[in-house]
Amino acid sequence: MTPTGLSRDVSTTAKRTVLISGASISGPALAYWLHRSGCAVTVVEKAGALRDGGYPIDVRGTAIEVVRRMGILPRLRDAHIDSRRCTFLDADGSEVASVSPSAVAGGVEGQDLEVRRGDLAASLYGKVRDDVEFLFDDSIDTLDQSDQGVDVAFHSGQRRTFDLVVGADGMHSRTRESLFGPEEQFHRYLGYCFAIFTMPNTFGLSRELVLWNTPGKAAALYAVGDHDELHAFLNFHQPEPPFDALRNPDAQRDLVATVFAGAGWEVPGMVNAMRDADDLFFDTAGQIRMPHWSSGRVALVGDAAYAPSFLTGQGSSLALVGAYMLANALATHRDHTAAFAAYERDVREFVAMNQALVDNGAATLFPTTARALEQRNAMLRGLVTMPSATARPAHSALTLPACGPMP
Hints:
Structural class: alpha/beta
Largest sheet: 7 strands, mixed
Strand content: 25-35%
Strand order of the largest sheet: 5-4-13-14-15-12-16
Helix content: 25-40%
Number of helices: 13
């Protein structure tokens, strides 16, 4: 047993076999800790390879301790984006305020991290690729549970049996749908839609975010370094989710273009770039709220169980912490029913506190009314006049157990 994480199994008990669906954040993190506690782990991922690049994500609070215990904190610190400023613009493109990123996001400067999603995924994968079986370009078709295990039929035609299965396959989890039913039962729409894509950096931006707002609409350009590429972001308030557009990329582009028609600043050029982008990601801002995260021998972790939405900035951190706590529960309890119950008991309040950071249509960065926008701008101007004010962390903490007994 080591002081930096879950214990390694040295018993003669047969290894518990675990299948994890999803190789993004929570999946590889869970695989790492399960392997350390003596499990034989397989990860199945529908993509043909690990995804690189990607938009910036945060690693905050308790999740910093998780990645420290995994030994990847130095690498993530090297990959830290270290943005220097956030500039807020009015409808006509004039500057409202320019402040430090930590003052806006609520992060703890010098401690919390912001990295490209692909950098975090690559760091996690690098810790487990030699110890864990990965099945890329495949997915779970069906699950059939029994007292002896879970019979899994893969899309490739392969059939195998595992002791346990964990869905780490994101907010639109197929594992969750096959086990618990349609996403609509658990999806809490927060009143926003967004489009993310990359476009050329013809603005001379470097290590900074520029955010344009009008009531109910926002456009952002984010330069994560000195690169010739920008992350572009178009966000808008929509009272009801546009279900048809979610299944039709052309309808997504048309919807965004219609919403932002006549907008000022650089928005027309961003809309044109969106139409040509080959990496457009469109979705609604929403949360997954479930009464239970497991059924029988199958459990959920990360966004599949409790997506908090990008508006909280806590999705990746919840995924890392949840993976650690699920692995710890399985290492502590040989009986999976008791382990899953302990996992829910120990993590649910932490999840609820982080999901409560945002409410329907009430995201601070994206005001939906003229009054709310002016209040937000007044707050930003106050940050400029009081630069020494300490930002309060926009996340709650969870005390991690040091390690778990051998399974």
